[in-house]
Amino acid sequence: MTALGDALGWVKHQVSSRVPEANLDQRDADYIREQLPGLWLLASLYFRADVRGLDRIPAQGPILMVGNHSGGNLPPDTFVFTLAFCSYFGVERPFYQLAHNLVVSMPGLGSLRKFGTVAANHDNATMALKSGAALLVYPGGDYEVFRPSWKRHEVDFGGRKGYVRLAREAGVPIVPIASVGGQEAALFLDRGQWLAKLLMVDKLARLKSVPILLAPPWGLAVSDMVPRLPLPTKIAIEVQEPISIEDITDKDDDAINDEVLARLQAGVDRLAAERRFPVLG
């Protein structure tokens, strides 16, 4: 058992040491400005991006945006919302997104850091908010993003509500961001939590799910670490009314979390009611 524990510890260290250190200066406004027109055209044509309610987001100062999450390791909802936010508020407004360690570590995805993507942990989130930035988080993480496609319109954080404490400590409002369509970018069959435990990646890489999915061009795939082509699903996003700093201060974590989930689910239900067919929208 000692030898196994030492081996697991070594592997865990090798994985964690490859996670890029969060550096807010890696966000490159000039790079975003150059890429934004072409990427927004791609999002508009391929994902038929429909983003509503951006005027509900406070125009300045630090804010915590909390979204439901879909689409696996290639989440089109994050892609679309990031482009919409930068287009609406301008690339100069500091804006960061939290992502799983493995996503920010994957080869070829260095451009994500130029758009403001940093590894998801409390220290990085606090650093971003203290800098005065807008921050987008997905509390559901890999639990929600790999849910079966037939649960695509369910908001489920898996009981995670640390974001409430984050907002309270930073003294910032919470803005819920509801989205639909992302979970139709592939056919997700199973979260694969049992597989994550079997392979011990839950301990080695903080990866609680090894999903089983159907996606082009591979067909049946186990895990979502191999690049794939997302289906051209229509992405619709609606910003909900903010939850004020006063409310966050006056209410406990459970009450605020329940309110966020209720607002997100109501927004998802409204957007889902407009869809006639999966993928096509």
TrEMBL record:
One of its GO terms (cellular component) is membrane. Keywords: Acyltransferase, Transferase. SUPFAM superfamilies: Glycerol-3-phosphate (1)-acyltransferase. Pfam families: Acyltransferase. It comes from the Bacteria. InterPro entries: P_lipid/glycerol_AcTrfase_prd, Plipid/glycerol_acylTrfase. GO terms for molecular function: acyltransferase activity. Residues 63-182 form the Phospholipid/glycerol acyltransferase domain. PANTHER family: MONOACYLGLYCEROL_DIACYLGLYCEROL O-ACYLTRANSFERASE, TRANSMEMBRANE PROTEIN 68. This is Glycerol acyltransferase. It comes from Mycolicibacterium arabiense.
